[in-house]
């Protein structure tokens, strides 16, 4: 570093600086989406907990996913809401580090968790007679623990490495939260090697779960097509359609964001895709798992019918 460069102690978000007049409207929209997402995921967790018939491996993983999604959106949106109303949209380096740790750990954990859910559907459809043996409670706990451990270990190491870089200059982040690439761009040193390693880690830990999911659903599709009756094929496909839709939304935006060439990155596309995977996709998940899931809808109806306040009315 040259001697006239001072290290940054705070970062400034400038993602919405050109939309000053729309910021109150954006605040209201994102607030509604945030409350809907957190409330929807908490409802799913409570429904599964209160319904013994849903105490199965598939819904055990859904509880993990719902908890993760609620934390995932909470790591980004509340601070963004504050900055939409505040004049100074700054964050300390330590605050940025905390946000990056939480966000990246939850992101990788979700990749692994979606792969575990695909394996659960593979066993249920392709090996139904061995399902209770292969997906027992201990196996489910081990799979969930492996997902969370992978996320914590890998992303803690990667994020610590990124934050060891010296940051200087104006400290302006062309984003609305501390995402990896916008923060790396603020470093005072050559980050080409860092970016190569980041790309390699993204390929390994995004593509590996994605490959496992593709293999699982290839086998599932072959098995479904062998079912003689149309009703049997529809029933088998309905058990994994919600998960397949969530996988498509999550990995579609993740692959577009973290595996595209550096030259293809622009602040506008980065912000648009980031809004998709931090706000829109988590908001869609409760809708997908309730409106498209017959068992969850029936559980919701039973719980609301048992509501004492409704009975008194």
UniProtKB/TrEMBL annotation:
<dbReference type="GO" id="GO:0004984">
    <property type="term" value="F:olfactory receptor activity"/>
</dbReference>
<dbReference type="GO" id="GO:0004930">
    <property type="term" value="F:G protein-coupled receptor activity"/>
</dbReference>
<feature type="transmembrane region" description="Helical">
    <location>
        <begin position="139"/>
        <end position="157"/>
    </location>
</feature>
<feature type="domain" description="G-protein coupled receptors family 1 profile">
    <location>
        <begin position="40"/>
        <end position="289"/>
    </location>
</feature>
<feature type="transmembrane region" description="Helical">
    <location>
        <begin position="236"/>
        <end position="260"/>
    </location>
</feature>
<protein>
    <recommendedName>
        <fullName>Olfactory receptor</fullName>
    </recommendedName>
</protein>
<feature type="transmembrane region" description="Helical">
    <location>
        <begin position="25"/>
        <end position="50"/>
    </location>
</feature>
<keyword id="KW-0297">G-protein coupled receptor</keyword>
<feature type="transmembrane region" description="Helical">
    <location>
        <begin position="98"/>
        <end position="119"/>
    </location>
</feature>
<keyword id="KW-0675">Receptor</keyword>
<keyword id="KW-1003">Cell membrane</keyword>
<dbReference type="InterPro" id="IPR000725">
    <property type="entry name" value="Olfact_rcpt"/>
</dbReference>
<feature type="transmembrane region" description="Helical">
    <location>
        <begin position="272"/>
        <end position="291"/>
    </location>
</feature>
<feature type="transmembrane region" description="Helical">
    <location>
        <begin position="196"/>
        <end position="215"/>
    </location>
</feature>
<dbReference type="GO" id="GO:0050911">
    <property type="term" value="P:detection of chemical stimulus involved in sensory perception of smell"/>
</dbReference>
<feature type="transmembrane region" description="Helical">
    <location>
        <begin position="62"/>
        <end position="86"/>
    </location>
</feature>
<keyword id="KW-0807">Transducer</keyword>
<keyword id="KW-0716">Sensory transduction</keyword>
<keyword id="KW-0552">Olfaction</keyword>
<keyword id="KW-0812">Transmembrane</keyword>
<dbReference type="GO" id="GO:0005886">
    <property type="term" value="C:plasma membrane"/>
</dbReference>
<dbReference type="Pfam" id="PF13853">
    <property type="entry name" value="7tm_4"/>
</dbReference>
<dbReference type="InterPro" id="IPR000276">
    <property type="entry name" value="GPCR_Rhodpsn"/>
</dbReference>
<keyword id="KW-1133">Transmembrane helix</keyword>
<dbReference type="InterPro" id="IPR017452">
    <property type="entry name" value="GPCR_Rhodpsn_7TM"/>
</dbReference>
<comment type="function">
    <text>Putative odorant or sperm cell receptor.</text>
</comment>
<keyword id="KW-0472">Membrane</keyword>
<comment type="similarity">
    <text>Belongs to the G-protein coupled receptor 1 family.</text>
</comment>
């Amino acid at each position: 570093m040259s001697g006239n460069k001072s290290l940054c102690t705070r970062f400034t978000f400038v993602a919405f600086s050109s939309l000053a007049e729309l910021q109150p409207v954006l605040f209201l929209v994102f607030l509604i989406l945030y409350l809907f997402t957190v409330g929807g995921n908490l409802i799913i967790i409570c429904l599964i907990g209160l319904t013994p018939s849903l105490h199965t491996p598939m819904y055990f993983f859904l509880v993990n996913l719902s908890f993760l999604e609620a934390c995932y959106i909470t790591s980004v949106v509340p601070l963004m809401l504050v900055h939409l109303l505040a004049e100074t949209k700054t964050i300390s380096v330590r605050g940025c580090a905390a946000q990056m740790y939480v966000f990246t750990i939850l992101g990788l954990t979700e990749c692994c968790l979606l792969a575990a859910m695909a394996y659960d559907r593979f066993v249920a459809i392709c090996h139904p007679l061995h399902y209770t043996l292969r997906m027992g409670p201990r196996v489910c706990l081990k799979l969930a623990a492996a997902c969370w451990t992978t996320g914590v270990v890998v992303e803690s190491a990667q994020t610590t490495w990124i934050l060891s870089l010296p940051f200087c200059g104006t400290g302006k982040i062309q984003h609305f939260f501390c995402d990896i690439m916008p923060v790396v761009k603020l470093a005072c040193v050559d980050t080409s090697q860092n970016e190569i390693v980041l790309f390699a880690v993204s390929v390994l830990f995004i593509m590996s779960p994605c490959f496992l999911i593709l293999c699982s659903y290839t086998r599932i599709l072959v098995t479904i097509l062998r079912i003689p009756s149309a009703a049997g094929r529809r029933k088998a496909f309905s058990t994994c359609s919600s998960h397949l839709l969530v996988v498509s939304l999550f990995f579609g935006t993740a692959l577009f964001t973290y595996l595209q060439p550096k030259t293809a990155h622009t602040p506008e596309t980065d912000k648009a895709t980031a809004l998709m995977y931090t706000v829109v996709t988590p908001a869609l998940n409760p809708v997908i798992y309730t409106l498209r899931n017959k068992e969850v809808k029936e559980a919701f109806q039973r719980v609301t019918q048992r509501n004492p306040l409704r009975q008194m009315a």
